[in-house]
Amino acid sequence: MSKVFDIIEKEQNRQNKTIELIASENFVSEDVRRALASCLTNKYSEGYPTDRYSGHKGRYYGGCQFVDELEEYCCDLWRKVFDTDYHVNVQPHSGSSANLAAYMAVLKPGDTILSMRLSDGGHLTHGSPVNIVGKIFHVVNYDLTADGFIDYADIERKIRDCKPALVLAGASAYSRIIDFAAIRASIEKVCAELGDEAYRPYFMVDMAHIAGLVAGQAHPSPFGIADIVTTTTHKTLRGARGGLIFCRKELAGKIDSGVFPCCQGGALQHAVAGKAVTAEEACTPEYREYIRRVVRNSKAMCDEFIRLGYRIVTGGTDNHLFVIDLSETHPHLTGKRVQDTLDKHDITVNKNCVPFDKRSPVETSGIRIGTAAMTTKGYKEADFEAVARRIDAIIRTMN
Ligand SMILES: Cc1ncc(COP(=O)(O)O)c(C=O)c1O
After folding, report:
1. Comma-separated ranges of CATH 3.40.640.10 domains in the chain
2. In contact, 186 and 148? CB cutoff 8 Å
3. How far is the CA of 151 from the centre of ligand 1 (A)?
């Protein structure tokens, strides 16, 4: 037997025994795994099935009749999950690929993107200088308030001053509701001041982290507000690893070209199948109940940390995650040391920068905690509170 299966077994054991608190991870169903491991991995399918919205029709390979059916079915399901008539492209290999393809679809190199900075909770693909997005585009970041909340007034100011070609909302480590409608209102206000013809930015939402909450109606939806919505399918959506791009119908052709042929080659139809099963599951009442429990558990665990004397960025959480800021309460500890120590106790978290962090992204002054994965494993509020106390006991032994 291949050595690979030994390694997979070791990883399976690790996943069985650890308490998984990485906010971007989850455990998929057996059906998702079956789809991912199916014969669809053998099939090439560059291009698109006959599409209702975009000008792109047809594949560059024969034998696509069944993957055409699959991809159309997958698109229909995702529109149903988010109750939207937006066009959807289900081919992005990942969240990063989805974001790059979306930018390439509607922007020119050198255009300005207004986004949240990485150290404040944004993602690499929101324009970090080390990412290709930061190398191709000019990036301006909006600020947070002193308490760590998105500063909506700063967004409006920077739209007016910098005239970005694209305004991006969304984050990897932000524990509060994002007010998409407020950002749209600022865009409209500035456009009206300048005269509509003179300036009109795209509004894009990267809902990778909160997509499951949007589907479960535990977070306001960006549909009908944003021009483009990107997401991953493997975080709170609890599905196959991959990305999706939604857009207003008039952008369908641009978005589809942005994915293929601009940024990707053949679609991964086994991944499309996994995403379709994910969408089927996300349409069920059980899934909506799961999301409600994720959010309840996150609040319970966060409150327990506050009770134990920890400082939480923004003082709490509205979603599936929160960030503990150790800089004042535990100035001698880095996020990296806490992550490494918890690893030894079979508790998995990730180090995370906190707003205005004086430490580098390698060391950090915080850790990010999420409840989506362990809620899938059946943890309830009392279990998460007990884990918070266990983490506190471990941190107390560190000097
Ligand atoms: C907000 C956000 N966008 C995009 C991504 C990128 O997703 P992927 O790792 O699938 O490329 C992430 C991943 O953590 C994310 O948090």
Report:
1. 30-282
2. no
3. 22
